[in-house]
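Morning run. Coffee first, then this:
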Amino acid sequence: MYNGGTFSMFYLYGRDIVSWESNGKIVKSNKSVVLRNNDFQLLPGIAYGKRGEIVDAHILHSENFFTVEGLAMPGITKVESLSSLSYINSILAQYAINRYCAQHKHAGYMNLLPMPDYAQRQSDIEQIVNEIIEIKRKWFSLDETNLEYHGLIAQIDLSKGVEASIGIMQANLTQDFERYTELVAENDDLWMDLADIDRNSEFRQTLNNYKQRRPYEELLSIDNACYGNVIDKNVMAQEIIQELVGIAFGRWDIRFAQHMKGIPAFDGMFDALPFMPTVSLDDIPFDYPVDTPADGILSNQTDSRLNLAMKVRDVIHYIWADKSDDIEYELCQLIGCKNLQNYFESTSGFFDYHFKRYTKSRRKAPIYWPLSSEDGSLTYWIYYPKLSHNTLPSLIIKLREENEKLMSGINTAMVSKEKNLENDLRVKQYQVENMMAEINRIIDSGYEPNHDDGVPVTSCPLVNLIFHRAWKAECQSNLEELNKGNYDWSHLAMSMYPARVTQKAKKDWCMALTHGLEHLCENKPKEKKPRKKKEEDSNSKLLFD
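And here it is:
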């Protein structure tokens, strides 16, 4: 889905996906959704965010919906797309449109923007745009929240050391940013020349001065990884560990990081974005080196075969072999932690970084969930994509095994009359039993996770198992909304409050569709008669929402 985004001229990373099951019948029936220009949705072209002091246009991929905030020019030719993209991102267009409109660049305002004849410079335009997009896609592909993610480890050679490799990366980033800046300036000059604005004129100087109003762009889209296109080594080290965690859980395919599989080239710039990044792990072959957890559960317990730090350490060894200890040590040094175990246990460590990385605008959606005992001494990590109705029962089994182990230790301590050890083990047993009781309470409440509900809704009933302060507060807030009935559209609400949701579905067609209760709904929509299409203006080439 294209909904605008941060200032990024020419190209923008893709992160949002629309659930369009059954040809979008649930989306279409939602009262808050108004679908316009259906004949032009899903077509390639260019698009731009409606709000902002300086307009910035981007490639619009095919199979993308555009919105009231992300306006589009779909269904135009490649030549028209590249030329319009080049022009709208020029300082001439950015200055001109602000002469007659403010922050909101509505379609009507954009349609009023005059455009110089560009036929004689078409090849120059395409050369500039193609090179800019190549640079941007390259750096965006290092960001795992981008659908065009090509792997971070696979694209940087850490064999010479983490810090040295980041230094090489910095040199490449500096070079590419300088080239990007040159290309943007060339594009600006091209359109000012096409508009016959004399290079020595006062107006030309005015336009050049206006460039200072453009927001600064970071080529690397990883949050907080760059300031002024200077890489933060601490953030980059944490990003590398985040990818290693993903490999340990089975999210990413280690063979790309090992260079056993080559990263495919980007698809065409107007092609549909992939549903999942190309470096994702699909089917696990019989000889796959990483023992990923089938149930998506790992642990912070140091004596457990499911220990997350141990699993990540195994991944490091599979990738870097005899250099693995040095890589691990250097990563921990750059992060400022004693070791991986300490990093995963700390409340300001891995999850804090991960939680912030997967917070976009107001949506907080981490995918590695640490579920903890009341005092935080016992933690199990849940991989959200593998969350199912079996996950909590599986946790109960693991906790029972932990409890039996503690009971055995307590009995041994009693026999040897080690009172201090016995007391310590009983404290741990208390935490385990309380955690089991809370999980059983959640199961008994009718908890049935469904990925279509999204992370904020699915995670909120687990609030008492969450130790991280910011995420706990978010879950508490979402749980209150769920209990009030504000999330009754969700599958989770149906499993936890079936009577209430069924009653609502009798009056709400969208809710009835969502829960398969169409037969109970008393307010079925009337069939709309098809309207005759108005004759299209044959002279209009640029079509906006």
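The longest strand covers residues 45-49. Good start to the day.
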